[in-house]
Amino acid sequence: MMPAMLQYVIDALSLGSLYALTALGIGLLFGVLRVINFAHGDFISVGAYALIVPSANALAVLYVGALPWPLVLLLTAMSVIMVAILSELMVFRPLRGTTPATLMIGSFALSFIIQHLLLMIYGSRPKAVNLWPELTTQVNLLGLRVQKLQLATVGATAMLLGALTLLLRTTRTGVELRAAAEDYQMARMLGIRANTVIAGALALSGLLAATASLLYTAQSGILSYQMGVPLMMFAFISTVVGGLGNLLGAVVGAFVVAAIEVILQATLSDQLRPFREAFVFVLVIAILLWRPYGILEAHSSRERV
Amino acid sequence: MVLPKRVVAGLAATIACAFGGPVSAEDIVVGFATAQSGIEQPYDQGGQRAAIMEMEMINAAGGIDGRKFRWFIADTKSDRVQGAKAGLEAARQGADLVVVSCDYDNGAPAALSAQNAGKISFFVCAEDAKAGIQGVGPYSFTASIAAPVQGATMAEWAIKKMGWRNGYVLLDNTAEYNKSVCAGFDWAFPKFGGTISGRDTFRNDDASIAAQITRLRNMSSPPDVIMLCTYTPGGASAIRQIRAAGIDVPIVNGMAMDGTYWTDAVPNLSNFYVPVQGSIYGNDPDPKVNEFTESYSKRWEQAPPSSYVFPGWVLIECYAEAAKRAGSTDVAKVVAELEKLHDFPTRFGPRTFTSNLHIQDSARYEIIGFTAGKPNPVEYWKISEPVPMDVLFRR
Fold first, then answer.
1. Fold annotation for B5-145+289-351
2. Are residues A147 and B305, on separate chains, in Cβ contact within 8 Å?
3. Which residues from B are below 8 Å from A129, CB to CB?
4. Confidence at residue B3, expressed as pLDDT on a 0 to 100 scale
5. CA–CA separation, A291 vs A11, rounded Å?
6. B10 band by pLDDT with thresholds 50, 70 and 90
7. Beta-carbon separation of A128 and B262 below 8 A
8. Phi and psi (nearest 5°) for B30?
9. Does the distance separating the beta carbons of B246 and A262 come in below 8 Å?
10. Using the beta-carbon criterion (under 8 Å), do A261 and B245 form an inter-chain contact?
11. What angle do CA B243, A261, A270 make, to 5 degrees?
């Protein structure tokens, strides 16, 4: 019984890590732009599709994905960051100064456009990619059989969270980002360059999306033009549960949502299991009723008097 | 309203291209209300191409009693509202037969338009039993085989041929197709002496099925076979994760996982079986199937992506036979003749339609097994009794 429970803990940790990577990207941009970027899931899809030769043929041919892993990381990250910066220049910057609702609709439109561009270039048939198969093998950890990929996902999340924390606390860009997240207007008045900060935030969120897309593709082995959407939805819920605008909150929220999902999958009866999502959302509502601003409330989430 | 000259010229060119030549009153007109763009396009394309090949072959042989097939395309753009319009457009342009999208949910709007206009419609490859009298109406047919037959075929074959008696059902509850495949397995597996010792569900877009794998791994007695009811992309991801967890138990699935376009996702895919209507891999025991696959690849400069191309050929074969027997394209007469087809030998196996059912409740399947990523025909299997109506419709 005990090993089974530990196995479920590992399952929740690795799923939570994937959600956390995505949630961090969403949370980072929300902090600066005050917008939930619904195209973030599509950034993940772009990262995954960057691995193959652009073609609508049924059989996918590896391109970037066939290179040594440091190059895969670099080129995928560059592809996603490029799309993120283009999104800033073509969508978010022209909409700067409009209401958050307009920005959100802009991000929806961007998501729709990216999905349909992928559909046009690659077709709707899913594409198979055997990325890093060695990561799908298992290791014995304290009597448990754990996939190397699960360890890599947890490790990459921990590392990126650590690096992000360091960047935000010790570098000038980090301080500017935090200042902008705290009070964007005041930060601008104090001389922080808005365009640089926002482009920086988007690039960082692109980097996180690229990491998520590589880990997700290594796990699933298959690409589809809407592959990032479910990750985006659960990560969005995670940021709300954790506390919108609080990066640590986004991570905590991601692990809470993943834990709820895994616990329900493990404990619900046969008849109730198909309705797992309904129970997940009931629990999410319960958490929000208990803490309306999320588990870790952001300083900036309440209006100051 | 005066239309600009360029628009008029464009419209004329479009209509001419779509018909591919002048239409004579004697022609048998087929309207394809199928997706030429968007999500459904690759799934409709194969069946449509096969149908065109069969019509070209009949035309080359002189047509049906001298009447040749002509066809045109009304694009549904993978949109259900547009699908209803495309079905109506096909009917208005005088189609004797309206061919609608492969998937039931996506093809039904066009089929309903055709039904309302008093036209015969064929789904390219729908496998929901509603694709016919019960869901659309008496003029609606599907060229494929009901999804529960696939689950039942794999159940009976698993027990009788392979001796796998301890089953585990893993259902992707995102689509009705999956539920129908599993319903067929649930009906047949215990019937032939098997025991379903565990079951679980997942969603096609689940980021991970690690929790489902943990449950499977913790079974007190490991199953002999896993009935997986799913499709790509989630199906490929699920199999990759199951195999990565070191579970090498044989996995059987419905026809939706046929094709090698997804198998790179699972390194050295082995011990995996699907029922198909014919092998697309050029290694079918029936040379007629291989001949078709070769002609398809030559004609379209692309190999068939999955065995869902075959029903496209079958539908024209069945319609042509019924029209020939009826001696006309009169709807009532052709429908009556279609309903008389009993074990009619098509290139891809016998087909039967009755006045109660316009989909196959039993059929000969070819089992394809994957070993080290390579698909090979294993054998033909036909269930010993048809799937009953309450299982077909999951009542």
1. Rossmann fold (3.40.50)
2. no
3. 264-265
4. 45
5. 26
6. very low
7. yes
8. -115, 125
9. no
10. no
11. 75
Q: Give domain status of residue A58, yes or no.
A: yes
CATH of domain B147-276+364-392: 3.40.50.2300
B25 pLDDT above the threshold of 80: no
Query: Considering only residues 15 to 34 of chain A, which have any Cβ-Cβ distance to chain B shorter than 8 Å?
Result: 15, 18-19
- Same CATH topology for B5-145+289-351 and B147-276+364-392: the answer is yes
DSSP assignment letter at B278: S
Question: SS3 for A96?
Answer: coil
| Residue from A5, A121, A222 to probe the interface with B (highest B Cβ count within 10 Å) | A222
Q: What does the pLDDT look like over A152-170, one tens digit per residue?
A: 998 998 899 888 888 888 8
How many Å apart are CA B194 and CA B211, to the nearest integer?
Answer: 26
How many folded domains does chain A comprise?
1
pLDDT tens, position by position, B322-380: 999 999 999 999 999 999 999 999 999 899 999 999 999 999 999 999 999 999 999 99
Nearest to A11 among B39, B203, B214 (CB): B214
Q: What is the pLDDT of residue A298?
A: 65
User: What is the b/e burial string over B14-52, where b = at least 16 CB atoms within 10 angstroms of the residue's CB?
Assistant: eeeeebeeeeeeebbbbbbbbbbebbbbbbbbbbbbbbb
pLDDT > 90? residue B122: yes
User: How sure is the predictor about B15, in pLDDT bands with cuts at 50, 70 and 90?
Assistant: very low
Task: Say if A14 is an interface residue toward chain B (CB within 8 Å).
Answer: yes
- Quick one: DSSP state of residue B263? G
Minimal-distance CA residue of chain B relative to A224 = B233
Tokens representing residue B256 in the block? 């939706």
Structural domain contains residue A304: no
- Is the C-alpha dihedral spanning B15, B19, B24, B28 positive or negative? negative
Q: List the single range of A38-42, A97-101, B52-56, B231-235 with lowest mean pLDDT.
A: A97-101
Contact: B245, A147; criterion CB under 8 Å: yes
Which of B49, B261, B394 is most worth mutating to test chain A (most A CB atoms within 10 A of its CB)?
A: B261
Average of per-residue pLDDT across B90-119:
94
Phi, psi of B196, deg, nearest 5: -90, 105
Angle, CA of A259, A265 and A271, to the nearest 5°: 150
Average pLDDT of the segment spanning A103-116:
93
Domain that holds residue A209: 12-132+143-228
Residue of B186, B202, B240 to mutate when probing chain A, most A C-beta within 10 A:
B240
E strand residue ranges, B215-282 = 225-229, 251-252, 272-276
Query: Residues B249-253: what's their mean pLDDT?
Result: 96
Beta pairing partners, A147 = A138
Q: Where are the domains of chain B?
A: 5-145+289-351, 147-276+364-392
Which pTM value belongs to this model?
Answer: 0.84
Identity of the residue in A11, A128, A138 whose CB atom sits nearest the CB atom of B236:
A128
At A197-220, the pLDDT tens digits run 888 888 888 899 999 999 999 999
B260 touches chain A (CB under 8 A): yes
Instruction: Tell whether A62 is covered by a domain.
Output: yes
